[in-house]
Fold this sequence. Notes:
This protein is α/β, with parallel strands linked by helices. A hairpin with a 2-residue loop joins β5 and β6 (164-167). Helix content is 50%, strand content 15%. The protein has two domains: 1-131 and 158-194, HUPs (Rossmann fold); 245-316, Chorismate Mutase Domain, subunit A (Up-down Bundle), CATH 1.20.59. It is globular. α4 crosses α5 and α11 (263-273) crosses α12.
Amino acid sequence: MTDKTEKKVILKFLEACARDKLILPGEKVLVAASGGSDSTALAILSGFLKNTTAFAYIDHKLREESAQEKIFVRALAARCGCPFYTRSADVRAFAKKNKNSLEDAGRDLRYTLLAEICRKSGFDKILTGHTLSDRVETFFIKLLRGGGIQSFYGIKRKTLIFSVPVIRPLLDFERSELENFLKDRKIKFMRDSSNKDTSFLRNKIRHKLLPYLSKNFGDSVNKRILAVSRQAEELALFITENTSGLTGEKSALDISRYLSYNKFLRKCFLAEYLDKKANSGVVEKIDSFISEKKGGKFTLRDFELIIKNGRAYKNAK
């Protein structure tokens, strides 16, 4: 990578942040850093922003090398002149208790702890190193898990998780592009050994499905998937804008108003209302349940939907 190409990467990052108003002047941002190539590149690129920045490492207690990763991120923060935060969580115990996969449990705990750091230390946003490559992988994860059409946008550039804005400014970058950027600047990064474990769905897609598609159908497969993903993102925004008045105080759902919408919009709204924790088949059943206009309770793994007096209430279990 030449100096010109390196500057192009930096400019591409800054333009993405400005174009989509991802990070505003004066905001304090917390970079979720694992030591891998994506988050290390994000940590370096965030130094070109005129914002107060800190790094955070979350130890999932799943791998022996996590101690070395924490040391690496701490040193990277010192090198960049940024504060460093760290938290740990027993992901395996959490997954067992909640009957969840290690992937989902790790994600939930990671964002819980990052949001906690933000609230306690006054950060406005969390930055994560998700890339274009992650977006394609997530598209297939949601497809294989039976997600509705509006879930095919893969990964949003900005979203709220546990009431804290989460920003993903690297979604236009291929993973290889960021690795070359780091190598050119002679910046090392860690390699997560668990990324090779194909018992995890994401890794199976990354190491088996995507190479197969690329080999047999050409490199344009990713571009086609991303085109569909972007259209789905626009559709999701349209649905949000057109169903924003369905919930009131305490997120209560107005059933009469809900039933005035066509079935497609209702089901798309439900998928978001249920925090994407129900696949398309379950969403269909819940829509039928609500349509009966009877009182009662629909139980899911993480919460219950209670219908009473013309309203539906979502209660955590």
